[in-house]
Amino acid sequence: MSEVRRIVGAVMIAGLVLAAVFAVYAWMKSRPQNLPWTPLDLSQPVGMFTGRKLTALTQDFAECRRLLEQAGVRYTALAPVDAGPSCGYRDGVRFAAGGARTIAFSPADLGISCPVAAALAMWEWNVVQPAAQKHFGAKVRRIDHIGSYNCRRMYGRDTGDYSEHATADAVDVAGFRLSDGTRITIVGDWKDEGAKGAFLREVRRGACDVFATVLSPDYNAAHADHFHLDQAERGAGGWRTCR
Question: Domain Extensin-like C-terminal, which positions (predicted)?
Answer without folding.
Answer: 63-243
